[in-house]
Amino acid sequence: MIGDYYATCMDEGSIEKAGLNPIKPYLKEIDKLKSQADIVSLIAKMHNAPLPAVFGFGAGADLKDSNAVMINAGQGGLTMQGKEYYTKEDVKSVETRAKFVEYMTNMFKLLGDNEAAANAAKVLEMQTRLAKASLTPVERRNPDNNYNKITVADAQTLTPNFSWAGYFSVRGVPTAGSFNVAPAKFFKEVNSMMTDVSIADWKTYLRWMVVNSAA
């Protein structure tokens, strides 16, 4: 089915003309974003879909109590397979990133964007920030690196620019108790990005995450 959509897009010149209806509501909401609160709410709505955005979120076994289940918020928000795809400087890695940017540029063109190349570069920049704050595969093998069980209040202290209450409200998750927020350095970077990345750039990143998930 996606192949048929893609073929139609190539013939018609844009995803809009291809009638890719399932993602239209998300693209419309992204276009209306005006504040940090809007971004938090939209991320939560995407996670409900589920569509990937910024970080991962879900329930799983408590790594330090096998009889318990806990909520986990973990690193995520990338398109390529992991941190090293964004950070390594060998010839193959540089080539892979260039092809990734080319792919994104073509996808943005199919969306009808006039600044497709600039949008692709912005997504790479934002995802690189997330990648640099992420754990490597080797680091993730250490369970302690994946464990930071804290109260919701402490999580809010960790990320004052990201409202967990707002996120939980959209997700329908109780705000009482504790949950796992790991690695902490990743969420500190997300917190910084909530204020030093413009709303326009957040729109570009979120649009990419939506359309790529539908491709």
Characterize this entry briefly.
59% of the residues lie in helices and 13% in strands. The chain has helices at residues 2-12, 15-18, 24-31, 36-48, 83-87, 91-110, 116-132, 137-140, 152-158, 164-171, 184-196, 199-214, and strands at residues 55-62, 65-75, 149-151, 178-182.
Describe the protein in words.
The chain is globular, with a radius of gyration of 18 Å. The protein is of the alpha+beta class. 28% of the residues are buried. Helix 4 (36-48) runs parallel beside helix 10, helix 6 (91-110) crosses helix 7 and helix 7 packs across helix 12. The chain has helices at 2-12, 15-18, 24-31, 36-48, 83-87, 91-110, 116-132, 137-140, 152-158, 164-171, 184-196, 199-214; strands at residues 55-62, 65-75, 149-151, 178-182.
Overall helicity: 55-70%
Instruction: Count the DSSP helices.
Output: 12
> What's the count of strands?
4
How would you classify the helix and strand content by structural class? alpha+beta
Low-confidence stretches: 1-13
Could you spell the SSE succession in H and E letters? Answer: HHHHEEHHHHEHHEHH
Outline, from the CA principal axes? globular
Mean of all residue-level pLDDT scores: 91
**Termini, distance in Å?**
10 Å
User: Which percent band covers the strand fraction?
Assistant: 5-15%
